[in-house]
Amino acid sequence: MMDRKERILAFMREDAYKPLLFSELVTVLDVPKSDIGLFENLLKELEEEGLIFKNRKNRYGVPERMNLVCGYLQGNEHGYGFLIPDDENMKDIFIPSGGLNGAMHKDRVIARINKKGIGDKRAEGEIIKIVKRANKTVVGTFESSKYFGFVVPDDPRISGDIFIPKDEINGAKSGQKVVAEIVVWPEKRRNAEGRIIEIIGDKDEPGSDILSIIKAYNLREDFPEEVIREAKSISQTVTEDMIKGRRDLRDLTMVTIDGEDAKDLDDAVSIERLPNGNYRLGVHIADVSYYVKEGSPLDKEALKRGTSVYLVDRVIPMFPKELSNGICSLNPKVDRLAFTVMMEIDKSGRVVDHEIFESVINVNERMTYTDVYKILEENDEGLIERYKYLCDTFHTMKELALILRKKRMDRGAIDFNFDEAKIVLDEKGVPIEVKRYEMTIANNIIEEFMLVCNETVAEHFFWTNTPFVYRIHEDPDPDKIEAFSEFVHNLGYTLKGINKIHPKALQDVLEKARGTKEETIISTVMLRSLQKARYSHINSGHFGLAAKYYCHFTSPIRRYPDLIIHRIMKEYLKGTVNPEREDLLNSRLPEIAKLCSERERAAEEAERETEELKKVEFMKKHEGQVFEGIISNVTSFGMFVELENTIEGLVRISSLEDDYYVYNDKSYSLIGERSRKVYRIGDVVNVMLIKADVAARRIEFTIVDKNNGENDEKALESDGKENGKPKRKRRRKTPDEAVLLHVQGKKKKKKTKKAKV
Question: How far apart are CA 379 and CA 607, in angstroms?
Fold first, then answer.
């Protein structure tokens, strides 16, 4: 089926092709009479996927040959939108409100380009076909009137309220959070129509805020009955029959290192120093694929979810607790089935030899990042005494982790420097504290060990030419890099080799900016200049890690790509990958990789939204109070100020009443016309919280200490390398983490900060 579709597309993409009628296609492609029905279905499927387009004259062609673009619509709270093309080499297309023609945020659409992009100006277009609707339900606040009601969507990118007829209100009352099912899709100048299918609760009721986000992203906390049944049928102990053919590592000293509240422990590590001076590093991963068989209810549900989701107050797991917290979790002092990668690493950090095999293990201790840090850095006597037999192991792990990190940095991996927040909630879900999360050597040990393991696995299976799922991070768009180069040049920095950028050139800029006023904004703008990491059946390397080969192998409890490559790896090691199986994998993996990438991004958005919600909620009770902060960004409409606890808010330019301020786009500063005061990135300012809008997830400040603006106009001419902000300890993140991707990534949401790449 896939081959037939590809042949049809290849034919329509030929230069000589002109749009043809169905009957003409049948003749030209010599479709047998018996296959005409099948051929018609293939064309319908391709049309539904947006890969071909049938015009008003019923002629078929590919969109790109008809001045059309297929992609996803990204809405905007002001009523317009942007088409994000399927072709990643194309720039986004601006869609004015009058050109949406009933399309909604996230819909898959086809647009006609009406105005081509010139220079920095985007192309402009209009939606001519909605290929697939994304918002079958909408979460929002219900408001009622005498004869009807309407739902105001929580997501501001969904423009237009949902009209609810009186007989479809179903008991909802004004001010309640609800789920509305769309019955009639919006059209030009006409809102969508729907019916209330679920009442979440009053908008101010504890828990309804997070539950609204869960519903909005179609996240399921519960599992289907057949999935629960299968999970409960799985034995919670490892029997002798299970370990036949596995390497017995139960006598090998190994530990897990996670956050205090982690329950799904899917990786254990061991280390030995060899007589030749090298290290033998063992990474032992929970063998989830032993329990979750391909095509089973557990497997199908895991694929739908794609990933576990770690919200600020709860975890929505990929598997039921019987697996995620039970038999698949590498709990201490019990036998567990594992998939082991044993690596010999020399003193320069090079993997000189490795083995991959199924094993049975018995973890010695369940360690926390805090305790390992105290042993290594604080020499905590109580912990050293308690874990006396492991202390040498921890010191050896630290030694190897630092070697691996140096090797990674030397080859040019990008090391972003962003601060994470730790949000503490009370038993009712109310935020009582927001503070910076500190990364320690204990986190770094696990991060580096998982990175080298994932690289080793990816390289091994790349050379076997086996169907596989890689974690890729493509080279950045040259136009974006050129824009970034101009941006940092205005701040006094030089980006080398922008025509064929190497990650090391970007890392050099980050190093030079380390500790300066503009460090945060340079990191942020650089991040936006890079592609997003994703899953793919084709290996194209990982730009941010400066790695030729990379995959996600280490978290099968909470990431589906890890699970599927475990299966493939086992089949290859056992010699059961025959040509038929290869064909099946090659046909399925592209779609699985795409789905997993989409589910990962949805999870990240939901996670980020819950964090933003709780930050604003936390600040709500501090309205009217004054805080010290640092200007983190300056724009034409105002400046963003970041507080010590990582919370950021906007100071609108209209609130600066002591002068008329003009935005200088070269120095990223606001300059007072009369006073010549200057507000620029990195300045320390005192701000008053004037509004914390929970519904809009928005924080607004106003400057209260006018003397914090610089009076010296010469400051605009500086190279931006002064050190004007308070010293603050920042943690370093790996590149893919900053590009929104994960090695152990999802644990970050549980405050168990493993590497996220």
Answer: 36
Q: Specify whether domain 1-63 bears CATH 3.60.21.10.
A: no
Would you place residue 705 in the very low, low, confident or very high pLDDT band (cuts 50, 70, 90)?
low
Those residues whose C-beta lies under 8 Å from the C-beta of residue 276, and which sit 6 or more positions away, are none
* CATH match for 137-205 among 1.10.3720.10, 2.110.10.10, 3.40.50.2000, 2.40.50.700: 2.40.50.700
Q: What confidence score (pLDDT) does residue 706 get?
A: 47
Total Cβ atoms within 10 A of residue 704: 13
**Contact predicate 407/401, CB 8 Å:** no
Higher pLDDT: 686 or 483? It is 686
Q: Evaluate whether 156 touches 77 at the Cβ level (below 8 Å).
A: yes
Neighbour tally for 639: CB within 10 Å: 28
- Is residue 746 over pLDDT 50? no
**Residue range 622-707, CATH number:** 2.40.50.140
The SS3 assignment for 526 reads helix
- In this structure, what token pair is assigned to residue 47? 């049309």
Directed axis angle between helix 441-463 and helix 560-573, to 10°?
A: 50
140, 154 contact by CB (below 8 A): yes
Q: Where are the beta strands (DSSP E) in 475-614?
A: 534-536
Q: Is the dihedral of CA 374, 375, 381, 385 positive or negative?
A: positive
What tens digit of pLDDT does each residue of 556-583 get?
Answer: 999 999 999 999 999 999 999 999 999 9
Give the separation between CA 681 and CA 667, rounded to whole angstroms. 9
Question: Taking Cα atoms as reference points, which of 183, 164, 159 lies closest to residue 100?
Answer: 159
Q: Any idea which residue has 């991070």 for tokens?
A: 473
Between 421 and 322, name the one with better pLDDT: 322
Give me the phi and psi of 350, to 5 degrees please.
Answer: -90, 135
Q: SS3 of 320, please?
A: coil
Pairing of strands 267-273, 279-286: antiparallel
Q: Rounded to an integer, what distance in angstroms lies between the CA atom of residue 181 and that of residue 200? A: 14
Q: What is the pLDDT of residues 107-138, one digit of tens each?
A: 999 999 998 887 667 899 999 999 999 989 99
**SS3 state at 692:** strand
pLDDT more than 70, % of the chain? 92
Q: Is the pLDDT of residue 718 over 70?
A: no
The stretch 173-200 carries a mean pLDDT of 93
67-132 CATH, one of 3.30.360.10, 2.40.50.140, 3.50.50.60, 3.40.50.1820 = 2.40.50.140
Q: Answer for the pair 285, 358: CB distance below 8 angstroms, yes or no.
A: no
Do 1-63 and 137-205 share a fold?
A: no
Q: Which of 495, 466, 558 is nearest to 749 (CA)?
A: 558
What is the distance between the alpha carbons of residues 737 and 532, in angstroms, rounded to a whole number? Answer: 10
Instruction: Report d(CA 298, CA 327) in Å as an integer.
Output: 14
Q: Any bridge partners for residue 408, and if so which?
A: none
Instruction: Inform me whether the pLDDT recorded for 697 exceeds 60.
Output: yes
DSSP string of 105-164, one letter each residue: TT-EEEEEEEE--BTTBPEEEEEEEEEE---SEEEEEEEE-SSEEEEEESSTTS-SPEEE
C-alpha span between 323 and 291 (Å, rounded) = 8
| Residue owning tokens 């990929």 | 318
The Cα–Cα gap between 40 and 63 comes to 18
3-state secondary structure of 22: helix
What residue ranges do the domains of the chain occupy? 1-63, 67-132, 137-205, 225-461, 478-530, 622-707
Phi first, then psi: what are they for 522, rounded to 5°?
A: -65, -45
Round to whole Å and give the CA distance between 652 and 371. Answer: 44
Q: pTM here?
A: 0.84
Structure tokens at 300: 């199908």
- Paired with 339 in beta bridges are 285, 358
Q: Report yes or no: 285 and 553 within 8 Å, Cβ to Cβ.
A: yes
65 or 620, which is more confident: 620
